[in-house]
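This protein record is not my work; I was only asked to verify it. Would you go through it and say whether the fold makes sense for this chain? Here is the record exactly as it was handed to me.
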Amino acid sequence: MMDTRRKQAGPPVIRAAEPQDYAQIRQLLGETSRLYPGIDLWWHKTVLPDLRTGRRVAVVLETGESVEGVFIGKPGRRAKLCTLRIQKPWRDRGLGTLLMAEGIRNLVQDDTREVYVTVSEAAEPGCPCFFKSMGFSMIDVQRDRYVHGVDELIYSSPARELKANLNRIASERAARTLFGLVPKPPEQDPYSRTLVMSLRPLFAEMMVRGEKTVEFRRRFSRGHAGAKVLFYVSSPVRAVTLCARISHVDLVETEELWRAHRDRGGISREAFAEYFAGVDEGYALSLENVIPLKTPVSLQRLRNAWPSFHPPQAFQVLTADSPIGRMLHSEGSEGGAENGHWDSLCSASLGS
């Protein structure tokens, strides 16, 4: 009987790899041959036989028509994350974290004590930050491991803590179905993890122009990846003027934070150093869907709804039953938007 599921477009699904996926997985791996020469031979001589005997696990991100991401791991007391790759059009949507979560769920067994992964120094700058945000720590650097003259960075994480953290994230952001792990639609719960954050007017303008897509913070939480944000713009604006979504949160040492995100942070090296003075690590919040509100919400209106409200220095979680949440819900409902939530206050495009 023909498998029609793969020919029908649909939402992304993260599931165990099947034999019919192998050709597309090999093609994905081939795109990393610059970093790992001989990877095609590794696939045919090592990975394929191990998948058939259960000595390795593979999980894929399927979009209905094609495989767009893959996780390959080798179980054991010291388990290895061999490959984690997602095609560019599907990045910055939280899918990498879900692919990692499902892969680790299959990789970590009762006797697994540690999970480790190696990352080439020539890989994309965000790779080390991503693994550190998951709970990995760098334990070694090996020169010439795969490519002569190139360092391979070795990261490790305690297996139980890693699995527990990723299982929690997966339960929050996805639903387990007969077909696999399916990401929850953002609009399913319009008030889930909505934050209010303060921002300077200059940075707000840069966000609208697309010149600033990362917000640096001394204090935050990786648990807020995927959250919606209302940005309160400070004096002289003194109003909530923007909404956005946090696609990813990095927590790493400040020097690495600067190297990975300096082109997207919108501040100088000197300002960055001054802001993070006295701390060893910092957060980088990657933003997407930055949209101006159709009607800015002034500080006076916020305080009319919630007299004790003060613009947060770090961030504040906005709940549906808070006075501001009820106000924005009411205005959204009056605007005729589906579900009547604060997204309806945002314009459909930056030019509107």
